[in-house]
Design brief:
Four copies of one chain form a homotetramer.
Chain A lengths: L1 E3 L4 H10 L4 E10 L4 E9 L10 H13 L12 E7 L4 H11 L5 E8 L5 H6 L4 E3 L7 H14 L4 E4 L8 H6 L4 E5 L11 H8 L3 E8 L9 E8 L6 H24 L3 E4 L2 E4 L2
Parallel strand pairs in A: 4-5, 4-7, 5-6, 7-8
Antiparallel strand pairs in A: 1-3, 2-3, 8-9, 9-10, 11-12
């Protein structure tokens, strides 16, 4: 939630939980002192909470959101979220994701993989996840998009991970899954936007390469940044070396972003993210 | 402050400030869920606070600390803290500290430098800070300690920074300045405790070297850690290279720790630190 | 190769290759100036090399190694190396390894997985690699070791990766695979040797946790270090958080070490490694 | 030196030193396999070298550079290099530089400081270095440049360090000191070129901030990169926090670049640097 900051705002807002039998198990807050906005993420146990679960949003809205001008999102954590993975030909990110799922590190369901290439079908088979090969060409793009959207909808997908999916995401999909499509870009954004960032990095002679995970917005590689990291390179590294070193960065940075998203710890505002602890 | 965790504890404790006309300008809290302890650091503006400044501790103690079993420290930020610097022969840490003071980065007073060597006297002169050369030998240690303690006391020192001071700190000084003596150790503690950690790191063939800033306690290099960082080395690095690369680490790690101490953002408990944001 | 340093040693030793029609495609050298030892790693193309491949070692030995006191290893890169993986119950490292193999990042063969637990058998199935469940108890250890050694020998294993294998490696296996058993230890060695390093790190209140990949030697966690890295933690992190953050470190650090081993870029001497670029 | 790669090129070129009584004390080489160019940096002891020092360049040119198409630079290390420092109002970089000089870490001479502001004059006094206050306005720029160039020339300056000097360097100075003017830019170039990079970084919501040291070329912030590093930030950091955290980055990154320059370990080609070990 976020709202204009005011004295005692934490006490006021947590009162909703404390007074109604909720037990707070997580609270992180932050005040943007420049714009005087109060941000808070709070989790509580519903066991003894006296407000019925399906009425919590309504009560909070009436009693707090309207009087205090609070913008809030409420999630009841009663089922794993459902993630779709989009891939093209590179396997390092999807393997990293599926290995985490398989080991129980993440409590998510992954009902489908969508790809514009058939190359990674074996990975779907390895992990028993339906792999939908939907070629995308300029001509077939509208049809492919429709097919993708139907699959996403039929599978009740909560959020999408672009695990090195090398296609522009159509506006309609971005609209339907606003701040729910996570991309990994293989550069330290905003440096090297667009295609072939490792070539550009090599050309420029940088001494560090990076990877950036962000939510997809209509403007290419310009969405809210969730996580970034870098690794050191030298003049000895060829473009192939950058690609190889970059892979480890990409998969880790993407997985960190996914984890924060699964934990619902990312609040997006003004094209920036607040990532709670 | 810290106390046993309980529902609504933030609301309860911030009530003291909100209800009495204080305006909270900083709040960070953390719950140790393993031990069920609530930690909070809060800053507020005293302008309209209705409790007289010299009575705040008393009121808070009666109304909150006793009922809720709160362990608290209260600081009124009405004067710069007074720092003493201890050095031996290496200048990189003290220069880093004095440069920050000179540029106005830190609002501290540094009334004196104490050293067991005369080598860095010129630095005292450069920055107009009295430099007290007090040799320390096994024989003269008690006398030297007494002299040091008198200087610290006369200068009303709040905390001490050991900027690569190569002497064991006597028990009496540790007792008087408990959790107020900050040391920099040139290793990634607890690896390489004691003398010559770079030699030991070289010998062991590590691929990273570190530096650790901690509060001094009677057990050598075993006090609560405030800050650590590392830098990468290779087989090509000689011990001299480690010493050189380590200097940059040491000064930055020490200065980060000092900054957190000046901001009173470090809470020490059970030989560990909570470093607030 | 390594030998006592002397003027012109590079020219002398590369002469063997240049004069006989070899084309050097990689050369990295390093002089330990403290001990006056010259180290070099050189790769050359055998296409036009006039010395028969099976006689290269003999010729080099006679013409250079004996006269110049050169200690050398020669590898003909005509087949993928054969790696055995040992695991227990944790899957993050083995998944990282198998994903690299599957994507073609590493040119290795992995003919078998050995485990003291049955838990990860499905991973063997996913990647079509025989999974040998060999329980190890104090009583059965000698027998288990014999069984393991036979499997390794039958599969013509070149090197062994302990991908979080939670058993002490018996002396006999260490002897047979000297500097060919790569372990990942979940701490920044030499800090926190032995069991439960994350618990020890939590207890000590460090601000960084690390992982160390090293060759196994008889002394526990004391073998030559190949690669290390760290990640930042705070007081908010529980032991479970350390375990989770550590997993990403462990798998990346282990895989970096394996890569260098596959490339034969690691020279081990005096319990330290020289890792060529 | 660099030249087209060819078999035995190391042996050929080091022959010049070995055959004439020179003792090589440092050698690092690198082959750009993409463009087939050989790069080498070599240091040797002149004590027993039979070619007179003032004729080395001539001999090498005739015997090797012409036949093998070698582009080389020769430096005789018989005097400290002479560095000029340009500053504006911020002191963190210049203090870091002068502290290293004062401690003997760097064997350089610093005959003058030039500034477009009078603010840091006290630092010149502290370190006994003449401080030349030369205001720069659009009107006075040509005159100021002439005055600066004369000072540089009179002081026989070898290279210039822009220690957060907030003025565009005129073309004439760039020409005279080609690849000898080191700047520190407070971003991870090529992200956030130009003024106010911390504001731009804040606006974009990046999770890491950087600093880049590079040689000055006519195109703004586009010269060959020598060194870069980054530090982690969060949504909690205000622009002032970025500025503060950035200062530590800037000074360390700049000093690392200066050190490599002093050691003559930077070879610049095609707007990129090769930084020898």
């Amino acid at each position: 939630m976020h709202c204009p900051d005011r004295p005692g705002i934490i006490a006021i807002l947590t009162q909703f939980i404390n007074a109604n039998g909720g037990n707070i198990i997580y609270l992180d807050q932050y005040v943007d002192t420049v714009n005087s906005i109060f941000y808070m993420r709070v989790e509580w146990d519903l066991t003894d909470f006296i407000i019925p679960t399906d009425k919590i949003a309504d009560y909070f809205n009436t009693l707090y959101a309207l009087p205090y001008n609070v913008n809030f999102s409420l999630y009841v954590n009663n089922r794993p979220q459902r993630m779709a993975i989009f891939v093209s030909k590179m396997s390092h990110c999807i393997y990293d994701i599926l290995a985490r799922k398989a080991s129980g590190e993440w409590d998510v369901e992954i009902p489908l993989i969508i790809s514009n290439h058939p190359d990674l079908e074996r990975i779907g088979q390895q992990f028993n996840i339906p792999y939908h090969y939907i070629p995308v060409t300029p001509d077939t793009k509208p049809e492919a998009t429709a097919q993708q959207l139907k699959l996403l909808s039929d599978s009740k997908i909560d959020f999408i991970v672009l695990a090195r999916y090398m296609q522009i995401i159509p506006q309609e999909m971005i609209d339907r899954y606003k701040h729910r499509i996570i991309n990994i870009h293989h550069s330290f954004l905003p440096a090297f936007i667009g295609a072939k960032p490792y070539h550009a990095a090599y050309q420029r002679g940088v001494k560090l390469i990076g990877a950036t995970s962000h939510y997809v917005t209509p403007e290419l590689d310009a969405g809210p940044i969730i996580e970034q990291d870098i690794t050191r390179i030298t003049h000895r590294d060829t473009i192939n070396d950058l690609v190889r070193k970059g892979r480890d960065l990409e998969k880790i940075v993407l997985s960190r972003a996914i984890q924060k998203h699964i934990e619902r710890k990312i609040l997006t505002i003004n094209n920036k993210t607040i990532v709670f602890s």
